[in-house]
Design brief:
alpha+beta; Immunoglobulin-like; 2 domains; six-stranded mixed sheet; 2 helices; about 40% strand; elongated
Length: about 350
């Protein structure tokens, strides 16, 4: 009987031990999985003009709206990735620009702690050495979370997040900048093409939404901020204007310009043909006859204007086909009744 009680106590102790360890591990796993990371940085974009041999000090603010985190700051170069405004962060810091933090207790690429609902000011020193070549230099101030130190046997979620602020540095001795632009493409997308008298003519149905694409290339050494408008003019004197939205075009890159829309489309449906390619503006209405599209782009006060134009035709093909079918049906019905009366 005593042996039985002893075995029972041993089994009971093992059972309690296993349950305790299970609950302990479950609790710690839930803690790691439930970690919340929510960071913000301001300003999100910085544009500066600096002369060689000069430096400036910029105050950034990093805010933590999530759980306490360990952060680290880095500076990396970036380059344009496509004509949609996306960029690619490079692995190394390139160019002659020098960066440092003027904070007494924080350095670049050194970890620091930030509590929940707390903020940290980062005093970023941007220095341009003497003799630095004039032109644009593009960087990103990255703030990354670092996994907390763990003891042997403990479980870490190792959740990592990164936020960044782009830094556009223009180095110029005289204050003048190199502005050169070129319209790469200005045309309507899709539509039916017909070769007529040696020219390609585009046709659309009168009720179709018509996407228009305008791509500008920056051929200069400095970034562009083009302004301007797209004008739609019909053969009956009707006219509509669409303002080109302000966007940065980095040096030696292309970008699709956007304009105030006349229509919108739900591109969550990937099967829509109109969503297969990005566009600058989507025209909507009932179009009839020939239409001319023109664009005027302003690159700067002393830079020449850029002009581009294209045209398209629109006819009610679907409506005409429907009317034709209705007429055929009416004629068929009339003839049928006429035969029955005879």
């Amino acid at each position: 009987m005593q042996n039985y009680n002893s075995k029972f106590k041993i089994i009971k102790s093992l059972f309690v031990f296993l349950i305790f360890n299970f609950l302990f591990l479950t609790f710690n796993l839930n803690q790691a999985n439930a970690q919340q990371i929510s960071l913000a940085i301001s300003p999100p974009l910085l544009e500066v003009f600096i002369k060689p041999g000069k430096s400036i000090l910029v105050a950034y603010k990093v805010q933590n709206f999530g759980d306490p985190v360990i952060l680290q700051t880095k500076i990396k170069s970036f380059e344009p990735q496509d004509n949609l405004g996306n960029v690619k962060i490079k692995e190394k810091l390139e160019g002659t620009i020098r960066f440092s933090l003027d904070n007494s207790d924080i350095q670049l690429e050194k970890p620091f702690f930030l509590k929940t609902k707390d903020s940290q000011q980062l005093l970023l020193r941007i220095r341009v050495p003497e003799g630095a070549p004039e032109g644009d230099y593009y960087y990103t101030l990255l703030v990354e979370t670092e996994p907390p130190p763990t003891k042997e046997g403990q479980i870490s979620g190792k959740v990592k997040a990164t936020i960044g602020s782009n830094i556009l540095v223009t180095v110029t001795q005289s204050g003048k900048i190199d502005i050169k632009g070129k319209v790469v493409l200005f045309d309507t997308l899709f539509g039916k093409k017909i070769n007529l008298w040696g020219k390609k003519i585009k046709f659309f149905d009168s009720g179709e939404k018509i996407p228009v694409v305008l791509i500008l290339e920056n051929k200069g050494k400095n970034l562009l901020k083009p302004q301007g408008e797209i004008i739609l003019q019909g053969n009956f004197g009707e006219k509509a204007k669409y303002e080109i939205l302000p966007q940065n075009i980095l040096s030696q890159s292309q970008r699709l310009l956007l304009a105030t829309p006349s229509a919108s489309v739900d591109c969550d449906n990937k099967n829509l043909k109109i969503c297969q390619k990005p566009f600058s503006i989507l025209l909507s209405g009932f179009f009839l006859g020939k239409y001319k599209l023109s664009s005027t782009i302003i690159l700067g006060e002393e830079a020449p204007y850029l002009f581009a134009s294209t045209s398209f035709f629109a006819f009610p093909f679907k409506l005409s086909f429907g009317v034709f079918i209705c007429v055929i049906l009416v004629i068929f019905i009339i003839k049928r009744f006429s035969k029955n009366e005879e």
